[in-house]
Write a structure and sequence with these properties.
The protein is of the alpha+beta class. It is 54% helix and 15% strand. A five-stranded antiparallel sheet has the order 4-3-2-1-5, with no helix packed on it. β3 and β4 form a beta hairpin. α1 packs parallel to α7, α4 packs antiparallel against α7 and α5 crosses α7. The chain is elongated. The termini are far apart.
Length: 202
Amino acid sequence: MKDIDKVQNLLPFGYLFLVILGIVKESLAYYQIGINIVRYSSVMDILISPIAAITSHPIFFITVLVFIVFYFNVPQILIKNEDKKWIHKIFGVKDVEPGLSESEKLNYYNITALKSLSAFLVCVFLGYGFADGRSISEKIKNNKLHYDYKLNYSDEKSENVYLIGSNTGYFFYLAEGNPAIKIAPVGAVKNLEMTKNRMLNK
């Protein structure tokens, strides 16, 4: 029961940590194309930013999921391999004080695993945000955009676009034949068509 209570107490802080990482990841990506995404984000966008980031790409999702499951089991791995110092060095574990009980060791290893997981998540989110923004900026600079979407506006006009991204309030995109990045309120758009679905056209 004590372990469950500890997990419940840590959950709000854990999610706050992920929210901050989500905001930083999005800010880093959009900054490279000249957009301050926080200015265009609602409270809901900010709260769901870590979920949106993790589910944005299957590889990113699987990587984060695998490492979370792995780090969940790290304390047990460290306890079972206390005689193998090289395993402890990998996770930055210092020598455990002699005479500690099993539960005290487990608490120490839990903190170690949490620190390692936090460092991993920071690296992954920052790396993904930088790589994502750089990829988009390079495509724009080198005019290597695929206009896979069609925006149909409320006034019946439409444009073929390269969709950079969207949130609850805005679409961020480039229209075909126009190098300028456009930001359109969701209310001005009637619907969004996926004109070229590479997953279905294989």
